[in-house]
Every structure is written in structure tokens, then in C-alpha cells.
């Protein structure tokens, strides 16, 4: 497969693994990159010294391109950016903030910059900041999400019509069929997160992985818009949030309920009761834990099969 995304990143397939906090360390990133996609280290849950260690281990385990996801609201972002430059990372995906602040600095060090957005307004701002590509993330995605609740199927053509730079679709994509659908709507590639959580290489706790593969339709919901929208897998903590809403909780009360370290408790330490469990709607279709490389090959093979099948249809 050869298109603007494979050329931009120097990869075999236009398939990117999302940089998910507590789930995307060097093992997952290197496995996806070795399989022909673009693996991403999720730096949002890492102290600077931990990020450096993961970059070095990823470099030791793959000779293929990989990236670092950089939440722009991270408190020690200056340290993270210094480490990324020092360690020679060539691709950075930025999110959760204004790309104008750091894009030119990163590009001055020959780093390809991609920014994650959830609406047309921010897509245009990203273009104005001279990013090299955009990830458009729809409402179906896990983790932090857009307040507009625009689905991927609606968001991709909206942004495709508004910008001309390479476009990567995210949210609700976990198969070759959904990858083909996203590209038919105007995307040049896809970013997949939730599907890779359920892999041996993911740094998510085994309890979380097992919980995900038993999820059913409707078991996730976008919550906490007053603070920052996040899609959660339903558990006791989710029930506490629902109860707080029923009692008319204020923004401050919701913030106190969320507290600190809630995502680490759930996704990394495996507390399925009181932890925050972030995963997308695609979890309802997942029923097995598979190696990351196997996931990549399965998606690409299905993509090609369905593409060939559609090309033979008589319309």
C-alpha cells in the first residue's frame, strides 16, 4: 500500500496505533511498527525519565519508524520535548492543546508533526499551525473526546472538505472493513487505539484487557463533559459519576470525585471497581486478546479482501 500517509511516515501500511495513556509503551509501539504500521508511545502517563527509557527501548526493538504522542497540556512538556529531540524521535503526534505553540519548534528539528482534532474548527487551526497531518477523532473513540459528539462517519468528510493536508481517521475503527470505510470517506489512513489494548504487548493491566473483551454494545459512555469529555467503560466508578449527576453535582464536585490517578488505578493497576476505564465503542466487537502484529495483519488482509470484493460488484 502506497499513499500520502505511508510516504509521510515511511511505513508499509497507512495504519497507526494510537498513543494511549497507560496502555502504549515501547513493547506495543515496536510491535506495531515491526508489523508495518506506525507504533506510538503514549507519553501522557510517563515522567520524563520514563519516556526516555521507552524511546530507547523502542529504538532497540525496531528499526522501523515510530512516534511519540505528546499531550500539550502535560505539566512537564518542556522536558518531554527536549527528550524527544535529544533521542532523535522523528514523528510526534500532539493532542489536547494548541498546536501553534510547539509545532514550529518541533519541525525546526526535522520532526514530522501530526495533531489530533475533533472538529473542523480545530482542524483549520492545526493547518494554520503548519502541522504535517491531522488525526480526526470521532465520538466513538475511547479516552478523551470532543464535546460535539460528532461521529467518525460525519467528521471525516467534514474535515476532508475543509483541509487538504493528509488526514487520518480515528474513532470506532478496529477492522479492515471500517478502515476501508474511513478511507472511502476521504481519510488517507486510520488510527486505532482500543483494538490494541487487548494485546499481550499493551501495558494495560490484564484485568482491564479481560474486562474489555467481555464488553457489550452500550457498555461505554461519554462522560464528564464539564471537566473534559472521556469515554468510559461502565463499572462502579462510572456508577458513582451517574449518581453524582443525578444529585446535581457541580463541576467542582465532579472534579473531586475524579481526583488524581484514577486512570492509572483502572487501566494500569487493574482496579475494575474504583478505576477509570477508558475504551472506545469498538470494544463491543472485541472478544479475544491477540498479538499486535497479528491484529495489524488481520486488519490489512480484511481491508484488501473487502476492497477487492467491492471492486467486483456490479452497480
Ordered list of secondary-structure elements with their pairings:
Elements: H1 4-9, E1 15-17, H2 26-34, E2 39-42, H3 48-61, E3 66-71, H4 77-86, E4 91-95, H5 103-108, E5 112-117, H6 120-128, E6 133-137, E7 143-144, H7 152-162, E8 167-170, H8 176-184, E9 189-192, H9 194-197, H10 206-212, E10 220-223, E11 230-233, H11 236-246, H12 251-258, H13 262-268, H14 292-311
Parallel strand pairs: 1-9, 2-3, 3-4, 4-5, 5-6, 6-8, 8-9
Antiparallel strand pairs: 7-11, 10-11
Question: What is the structure about, briefly put?
Answer:
The chain has 315 residues and is α/β, with parallel strands linked by helices. It contains 14 helices and eleven strands.
Low-confidence stretches: none
- Output the number of helix runs: 14
Gyration radius over CA: 18 Å
Let me know the largest β-sheet. Answer: 8 strands, parallel
Order of helices and strands: HEHEHEHEHEHEEHEHEHHEEHHHH
Mean pLDDT over the full residue set: 94
- Total number of domains: 2
Q: Gap between N and C termini, in Å?
A: 26 Å
The helicity comes to 40-55%
CATH domain topology of the largest domain: TIM Barrel
Number of strands: 11
Q: Tell me the overall shape.
A: globular
Strand order of the largest sheet: 1-9-8-6-5-4-3-2
**Could you say what the CATH architecture of the largest domain is?**
Alpha-Beta Barrel
Q: Would you identify the CATH H-level superfamily of the largest domain? A: Aldolase class I
Q: Classify the beta-strand content into a percent band.
A: 5-15%
CATH classification, class level of the largest domain: Alpha Beta
Structural class: alpha/beta
